[in-house]
Every structure is written in C-alpha cells, then in structure tokens.
Design the sequence.
C-alpha cells in the first residue's frame, strides 16, 4: 500500500478530481449540442448500421480508436485544441487521478467534431457516444506507473508498457515523435506518421 500512496499527492489528486467535476458539468450542459451535431450527420447517413450487429461494434471500435488517434494528435498540434487539452498534462504525478484530469472547455471548442464522420457513415449517435465511453474507461487504467510490466497484450491493446511516456511529458515530445503516442486503445495506430 505504501507504494501506491507514494505516488499520490493530496493537492494534485484534488486538482484532478476538481477538474473532472467541472468536465462532467460542462459535458452535461453541452450534451445537447454534441448529440444534435451527431444526429444532424446521422440524418443524412450513407448507410444504416444496426447496433444489434456484433460486426458494427467491431467496426466502431476500430473507427473510434482511429478517430481518437487523430483527435489526440490534433489536440497536440493545433494551439486552439491544445489550450483545451494541456490541463490533462499538467499533473506532476502519473497516476490514476491524472486520467480524470480533463478539460472543462473541450466540448465548447469542438473536440467532439472528429466523430461526425462516424454518424455520417451510419453509426447511431448513441452507439458513437457509448463507444467513446468504453474507450475512455479503458484508458483510465493505463494512466499509472504502478504497473511496471505487462508483456502480454501490449501488442494488441494499449497498456502502461505500450504507453511509455506519462501524459505530462507528451507536451515536450517533438511532433513527429508524439504521433505514435496519440493512440487510445489499439497501439497498432502508433505506426501512423
């Protein structure tokens, strides 16, 4: 237990939790805007994709991770989105509370817009939002230095081993080297340049 306690500082953890409370409040206030935007694209969809199909869930899993990669990469390369994302990298610790250190302004500045093409393809907005939730829930546990080695699975899914740098250090990584570290669940996207 001392190993875990040594990695948390009360002020840092409270700051992360406070930022998460603000993030949830803003997301609830702006949920209508996001849902309306996705629904507008879905209303002119190219295909009808059923959430009852396991193939649809496999497809959205892969497409959501690809979309997340580009959202995260753009969040580091575009100053406007970086201003909404930088707080996630402001912790002095790399622990599970860092995962909840999320922006209050991300929805306002439009960081949800990269998912519009998924609705246009025919994925229902509720399915897109559910998959985003699964992706973020998965990413929560990889924000830790406690897990030192996970040799199995690192080639299939992101693990603390597959995510070698703490989020706070990503801001100091030159852009060409960051590109391979912007993935969400699947590390195969690390090879996109």
Sequence:
């Amino acid at each position: 237990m001392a190993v875990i306690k040594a990695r948390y500082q009360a002020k840092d953890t409270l700051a992360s939790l406070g930022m998460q409370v603000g993030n949830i409040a803003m997301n609830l206030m702006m949920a209508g805007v996001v849902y309306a935007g996705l629904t507008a694209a879905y209303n002119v969809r190219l295909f009808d994709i059923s959430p009852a199909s396991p193939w649809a869930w496999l497809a959205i899993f892969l497409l959501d991770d690809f979309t997340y990669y580009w959202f995260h990469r753009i969040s580091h390369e575009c100053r406007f989105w970086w201003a909404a994302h930088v707080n996630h990298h402001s912790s002095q610790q790399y622990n599970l509370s860092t995962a909840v250190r999320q922006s209050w302004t991300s929805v306002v500045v439009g960081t949800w817009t990269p998912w519009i093409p998924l609705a246009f393809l025919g994925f229902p907005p509720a399915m897109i939002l559910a998959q985003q939730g699964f992706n973020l829930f998965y990413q929560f546990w990889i924000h830790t230095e406690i897990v030192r080695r996970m040799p199995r699975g690192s080639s299939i899914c992101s693990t603390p081993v597959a995510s070698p740098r703490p989020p706070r250090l990503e801001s100091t990584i030159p852009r060409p080297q960051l590109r391979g570290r912007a993935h969400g669940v699947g590390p195969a996207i690390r090879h996109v340049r």
